[in-house]
Amino acid sequence: MFVYEGEFIKTLAEKLISEDYRVYVPDSRSFIEYEKAKDIPKGKTRKSIKEFLLPQNEVLIRYGKWIEEVPLDREKRALIGVNPCDAKAVTLLDKIYLEGLMDPYYQTRRENTLIVSRNCEPNNYCFCESFGLTPFSTEGSDIFLIEKGERTYIIPVTSRGEKILSSIDGLMNTDVDESSIIVQHNFSRKVNPDIQDELRKKFDDEMWKRISLNCISCGTCTFLCPTCFCFDMLDEGEKEGFRYRAWDSCQFPLYTLESSSHNPRREKWQRLRNRFYDKFLYTVESKGEIFCVGCGRCIEFCPGGIDITEILAEVEK
Amino acid sequence: MKKEESKISKIKDRVAKLLEKDVSVFIAYERMPFELKDRLTIISSPKEVDKISVSPFMVGSPARMLLEIGGIDDGKIGIIARACDTRAIKQLIKEGKIKRERVYIMGITCGGMVNTRKLRSPRFENGRLYDHDREVHMKDVLYDTCSRCEDPLPVLYDEVFDVFDVFEGVSKADESTEEIEGDREKRWSYWMGEMEKCIRCYACRSACPMCYCTECLVDPINLAVSPFTSAEEKASYPRFLGKTISAEDNLFYHIIRVLHHAGRCADCGECERACPMDIPIRELERKMREVVRDVFGYDDDEIPFLAKLDMIPEGR
Questions:
Q1: Residues 6+ apart with CB under 8 A from B43
Q2: Which ipTM value was assigned to this complex?
Q3: Do B245 and A252 lie within an 8 Å CB cutoff?
Q4: Percentage of chain A surpassing pLDDT 70?
Q5: pLDDT band per the 50, 70, 90 thresholds, residue B171
Q6: Residues in chain A whose beta carbon is closer than 8 A to a beta carbon of chain B?
């Protein structure tokens, strides 16, 4: 671990910019370019960092009388000030896009994106602790920063992070006891992650219909979710245009509509149920991980007042 | 606050009584267990009335839920409605989506809804609002929709409960804002900046009591396919907008949505409240309302605006 006196993020950002990185830092809504940022607020951004690895729109080919593949995006990017839960979420996205079928678009972006996280200040919606995370978890980060007063403690996490740190002046080695700089947080929300058996039993439960009354079938929860990874492929332009992929949401009725007109998830409650099963059962079965990091965005911004922690507690009952 | 509490308990008693005989279910709000927010709920027996909450923290349009459950076969549906909700219900009745005699409207006076996004750790005790330990004046943290509400009194009701002191919004004359009426270049860059934030989650559309179409023009495929729809027919469905999220395309979506609300918008602000990116969508609706009134001389009590357009004399 290192320690730095002064504005470390500034030092790091400037160093990375000099090495041809495009540097992004959090604004309240999303990560914005460092040069445009007035300050770097703490707390969660509305949108997670997944848009840097899986953009909401990504052009794959252009077509006309010819077909032209769009080159992979190799721009070097650094995200500084990422929340630990969002960094962990990237490791989950990796399981989808890098295991088994390798997605070259995601892979290239991933390899060229440096993730520098920092300790966060949880809000009332957070429940990352339920998944073994804390505001100080380093998983998924290349470098981890702990800000304490005027000081920044710096933990190199990956060899890539280490290499970058080795070229920064002013870092001092420290053997400070980690427990002395870590602040415990009492989370008011929690869920039981070992809920798979209950979910298997509750598939046909009436509760889903009742709960879904408040759902309005918008895509807020899935679009803000750092681990939701679904996309749709579309062509724009009839004779000439481009093929792109765009975020899709399992909450939209069109998501599962088949061309035969059959829709396996025609009803709202089936779609809402799917979100819970996909995060807490199907992905556990296929990838061995729960696809939720407890960031709480889906609770905070749900226009209908649906609370994932409340629903999982009900599943357990 | 004592006044409010006794009023709310009166509402509960009344709802319980209505549920015994006249009304089969009641659309009301309940407090969420872990946060300062009331969400919609359906009360179907007098035993459940205790969970009813009436407060400045209600989210979601009861008119939209009324539309959703309106299909139940018999009996009346009761609804606790604020001024804006009654405006939406009135419009839905006018459009033939709801039958007046099927609804029992319990109007409540409204002092505006608190935008808890403006607070970090909100707490509500004895009628006072706190953020952490600092007291906050509710009027300072209302939704913009509410602080500029034109008419906080229900327009259509079977009975009204005077729960909250009404909050008088600004008058119509103060309506226009820089963002809508100001310099053209500035306006364009302002709206492009806002539209850039849109993630097209369609929360505004889904939350809106007026957006009840089963098919929407901005959906990339059409829901009205059946096993008998030929491939050719499917391919020939007009597609106005795909899933491209450039600021221009987002603006296209929002303007189309607003145009379809000409003379219909109830000004409830649910679109803005639902928006996870805080885009001031309602400003567009507000301008639409103004045009419909001032340019076309439309009054809310007339037949639907779009039906009336044919009759407007030329040159107006």
A1: B15, B19, B25, B26, B27, B28, B49, B51, B52
A2: 0.93
A3: no
A4: 100
A5: very low
A6: 29, 46-47, 56-57, 123-125, 188-189, 213-214, 216-220, 222-224, 232, 234, 236, 244, 246-249, 252-254, 257, 259-261, 299, 301, 303-307, 309-310
